[in-house]
Amino acid sequence: MSYNFLKIYKYYFSKKLVFIFLMGIASGIPLYLILSTLMIWLTRENIDLSTIGLFSLTQIPWSLKFLWAPIIDYYKIPFLHNYLGKRKSWLLITQFFLIISIILLGTNDPTSELFYTAFFALLVSFFSATQDIIIDAYRIETLQESDQGAGAAMTQAGYRVGGIIAGAGALYFREIMKWETVFILIALFILILMILTLFAPQSKELSIKKSKAKNIGNYLLIFIKPLKEFFDRNSLLNTMLILLFILFFKLGDVIAGVMANPFYVKLGFSNIEIANVSKLYGVIATLFGVFIGGWLVKKIGIIKSLFLAGFLQIFSNLLFVILSKIGPDYIFLIVTVSGENISGGLGSAAFVAYLSILCNKKYTATQYALLSSIMGIARTFLSSPSGYLVNFLGWPNFFLVSVFFGIPGMLILIWMHRRFPISRQIKKIP
């Protein structure tokens, strides 16, 4: 038993996986800042729920990042590439602008400058999405296929630690300082991680043959080739099933998640209670789910893990329905957060592993960006009317509806699994 534990410990704490974990933290901080902390800030400032729901549209860059991912795959940063390599040089530049954007976001008063708050939130999302392109490509290129489950687990674990910093940490700091200072501290965390990741091992970058075409023609070529490679693997119907599954798998989870933080505030929980349960304990619960998910991927395979996680995600939304009926009960808040985060973590680990194996390492950044962007459509566009739904339906019915939004993804997974095996989905075309 102790020997096996030691092997697991050494495996997860290998140099590559540790740096992937650190990069995951850097990805998680701006994501949770926009998805969670910003929403709580707006709710505390009495911004209307329908407007808060529309703020999910500031996440559009996560849904459109595949448009500029080919540039990151194809082009090198002059001078810096010679010292840091393609991925780390792009990461350095992107994180610098991300830090500036976070500071600008924190200097705005949403009660009087809501437009600028939205603009700077959009800017944070853009540089965060670009950072994700680079980090995802680095992870896939650095790890063997058999290690992608562990890589997904460490990425998701890093995400959640980033969530503690930008979620619970931000709310704790808010008790003793202004929002402006809180955002500057969060930006400093990104700066520290930027310095640390400069020491990460180089990724195994596959060269892409450059075209003689110029400007827009060249861009179209480097954009189309990775997409063509992906679409050429299967029939059009099978490929569309894969894309629809990616779109709908976490839809129910996302619909509920967008309004979860305003829900906790409106129900009567304090910032400290939300920080303790949702942002601190919740992240720990998610980490538990993530590592269980990574282990399940290795033991029972990706497809079975997706089935299990999908059903757990659907049923966990029913806990929000019960909490809305009970009211601000601290114990049941813990129960609700436990169910949501363990199932969400398990689902994320399996889902990221699935997206990772779909990518041809020759076009890592572009293909993973495309696939994760499709997932982002659910988070950004399909969840934006959530505030209006709450105003129209009320909290209990809203969360009940979110349960049904999780069903289409599972039906597609069943259909897809019966039509063609996963080996055909990941087969690479020479």
Task: Note down, in words, how this protein is organized.
The protein has 430 residues and is mainly α. The protein has a single domain, classed as MFS general substrate transporter like domains (Growth Hormone, Chain: A, Up-down Bundle). It has helices at 2-12, 15-44, 49-54, 60-64, 69-74, 80-106, 114-142, 148-174, 179-197, 215-231, 236-248, 251-258, 260-267, 271-300, 302-316, 318-326, 330-357, 364-382, 386-393, 395-405, 407-419, 422-426. α7 runs antiparallel to α18 (364-382), α15 runs antiparallel to α17 (330-357) and α16 packs antiparallel against α20. The longest helix has 30 residues, at 15-44.
* Low-pLDDT segments: 210-214
Overall shape: it is globular
The total count of helices amounts to 22
Mean pLDDT across residues = 81
Secondary-structure arrangement, i.e. CATH architecture: Up-down Bundle
Helices and strands: which structural class? mainly alpha
Q: Radius of gyration, rounded?
A: 21 Å
CATH topology: Growth Hormone, Chain: A
Q: Sketch the topology as an H/E string, one letter per element.
A: HHHHHHHHHHHHHHHHHHHHHH
Q: Give the termini separation.
A: 44 Å
Helix content: over 70%
Quantity of strands, as a count: 0
CATH superfamily: MFS general substrate transporter like domains
